[in-house]
Write a structure and sequence with these properties.
This protein is mainly alpha-helical. It has a single domain, classed as Arc Repressor Mutant, subunit A, CATH 1.10.10. It has 4 helices and 2 strands. A hairpin with a 4-residue loop joins strand 1 and strand 2. Helix 1 crosses helix 2, helix 2 packs across helix 3 and helix 2 crosses helix 4. The model has no long low-confidence stretch (mean pLDDT 93). The structure holds FE2/S2 (inorganic) cluster (FES).
């Protein structure tokens, strides 16, 4: 999915402050986390590998999980 499609799936409350750092420890803006999920990072570990978000003390994990819940719905086929 594209970043735009990802944004369409997010509730308003998760679309705020897209350019602010979601991961303050590693200075990863929220939009970058969203882009990583859109590109196929479908769990916390994949997001961390792609963006380094949550790779500090993990304090932003919850926020990433919220985004994953909205965007990375389990896909059929495998
Ligand atoms: S804010 Fe992301 S690990 Fe701390």
């Amino acid at each position: 999915m594209t970043v735009d499609e990802a944004l369409e799936q997010l509730p308003e409350i998760l679309k705020r402050n897209l350019d602010r750092n979601l991961c303050v420890c590693n200075e990863v803006p929220k939009i970058r986390v969203i882009a990583a999920i859109a590109e196929g990072a479908h769990d916390l570990e994949a997001v961390r590998q792609k963006t380094y978000a949550s790779d500090g003390n993990g304090c932003c994990r919850r926020q990433i999980e919220d985004l994953l819940e909205c965007l990375a719905s389990p896909e059929s086929g495998d």
